[in-house]
Amino acid sequence: MSVSNPTLITFVIYIAAMVLIGFMAYRSTNNLSDYILGGRSLGSVVTALSAGASDMSGWLLMGLPGAIYMSGLSESWIAIGLIVGAYLNWLFVAGRLRVQTEHNGDALTLPDYFSSRFEDKSGLLRIISAVVILVFFTIYCASGIVAGARLFESTFGMSYETALWAGAAATIAYTFVGGFLAVSWTDTVQATLMIFALILTPIIVLLATGGVDTTFLAIEAKNPDNFNMLKNTTFIGIISLMGWGLGYFGQPHILARFMAADSVKSIAKARRISMTWMILCLGGTVAVGFFGIAYFSAHPEVAGPVTENHERVFIELAKLLFNPWIAGVLLSAILAAVMSTLSCQLLVCSSALTEDFYKTFLRKNASQLELVWVGRAMVLLVALIAIAMAANPDNRVLGLVSYAWAGFGAAFGPVVLISVIWKGMTRNGALAGILVGAITVIVWKHFSLLGLYEIIPGFIFASLAIYFVSKLGAPTAGMVERFNAAEKDYNLNK
Q1: For the CA atoms of 355, 358, 362, 366, what is the dihedral angle to 10 degrees?
Q2: 323 burial type by CB count under 10 A (0-12 exposed, 13-18 middle, 19+ buried)
Q3: Where are its TM segments located (predicted)?
């Protein structure tokens, strides 16, 4: 690997810029609220793009294009499900959660919000929700580290072990230093880079394969079923792919963006920006994988790396079709996708350990400076555990993501959604929802029941548990009063 390698130079410049943003954010981080939620100061553009970038991890440029390349358009149901789920999350949860967290003790984390919203004096709700965050986010962090390692491995010819540390180091650096503001500001840059890559790349692939007609004929010649959205699918298979959209209601790293918005008024504009960005990105992702079928059919001599691991399709197309400097920028988009999500996940894990364990149970009177530094130490701890989990080179990005996504979607999704729209929900209902959702996902995944994606039964059973257990009791007058005040505030300002 030459030091003059343009791709390497591009990567170094990009990573240096992200770390510089981290140090700029460091100067604005004075207390734990700043470190965890940026002092609730995000405008609509940063809220929108950071929510999108934190959602779309390495699977956007690796896992999903690889799945489309292997199976054709039948894998695009997942993109449709995600668009529907994201829109409903913005519509029903975003503004209400922003107001509810403020009215319930100015909560900084989801466990903090659950604890205040349901007046849980025992701490049980806080502990269980924080444990769920740590378990599933560590798996999710591992998926990001795997994606980063694959990128460095295939781009610079590093060993997987070296690539593992190289891919994680930069993200850990700016998250450690700058906290939430660094993560949100870098997300905005990264979201811009990702959409640039996903609009430009399919256009160039299309030109390289002879235009729309020639490309489509080549894809059809490879396998006519590539165009068939029902190819090798069943009703359960389609429902499983669409079911990914349910996950949005429970993803702590996305919900944190809603909580950090500067006001409810910013949410509607942020929704429009975020959904436009998301539709363009997912469309580009599907196109990269789909047009890649035609390109590698026409050039089998360079198809080896993609045949070996289909998740490399975007990486190989960028390296083959672009000037090395442009390729460096495009490959930085994968790093951007990995870093944007990984940084959010590290921060949410850190906040769970710091706010929900350390401050609540160990050091109630800890100073703000102490809490910020404990938060930084927790970023390092979670990162090291995730790197250890990612050490297996046979890991697949989409597989790791799907498990963690289902865990959060089922454990937290129904609790968050119902807590912001139904004042009759109780503390025991919330507890039952989290436990039933998480346990269903783990059991369903282990036994692979019916071939159905575990998020769907998890979400349904958790919702039923919340309703029926809540009906066995009643919310306190204080809970109802705060809910009504928050709902009134939301309706006045939306």
Answers
A1: -70
A2: exposed
A3: 6-26, 76-94, 124-152, 164-183, 195-219, 234-256, 277-298, 325-348, 369-391, 403-422, 429-444, 450-469
Query: What does pTM read for this prediction?
Result: 0.84
Token pair recorded at residue 56? 């779309």
Q: What is the pLDDT of residue 482?
A: 95
Q: Reply yes or no on whether the pLDDT at 119 is more than 90.
A: yes
The three-state (H, E, C) secondary structure of the chain, written as one string: CCCCCHHHHHHHHHHHHHHHHHHHHHCCCCCHHHHHHHHHCECHHHHHHHHHHHHCCHHHCCHHHHHHHHHHHHHHHHHHHHHHHHHHHHHHHHHHHHHHHHHCCCCCCHHHHHHHHCCCCCCHHHHHHHHHHHHHHHHHHHHHHHHHHHHHHHHHCCCHHHHHHHHHHHHHHHHHHHHHHHHHHHHHHHHHHHHHHHHHHHHHHHHHCCHHHHHHHHHHHHCHHHHCCCCCCCHHHHHHHHHHHHHHHHCHHHHHHHHHECCCHHHHHHHHHHHHHHHHHHHHHHHHHHHHHHHHHHCHHHCHHHHHCHHHHHHHHHHHHCCHHHHHHHHHHHHHHHHHHHHHHHHHHHHHHHHHHHHHHHCCCCCHHHHHHHHHHHHHHHHHHHHHHCCCCCCCHHHHHHHHHHHHHHHCHHHHHHHHHCCCCCHHHHHHHHHHHHHHHHHHHHHCHHHCCCHHHHHHHHHHHHHHHHHCCCCCHHHHHHHHHHHHHHHHHC
> What does the buried/exposed string (b/e) look like for 429-450 if buried means 16 or more CB atoms within 10 Å of the residue's CB?
bbbbbbebbbebbbebbeeeee
**In sequence order, what are the beta bridge partners of 261?**
42
Residue 1 banded pLDDT, cuts 50, 70, 90: very low
CA dihedral 289, 291, 296, 297 (to 10 degrees): 120
List the end-to-end C-alpha distance of the chain, in Å, as a whole number: 54
Homologous superfamily of domain range 42-170+178-493:
Sodium/glucose cotransporter (1.20.1730.10)
Q: Which residue has the higher pLDDT, 114 or 138?
A: 114
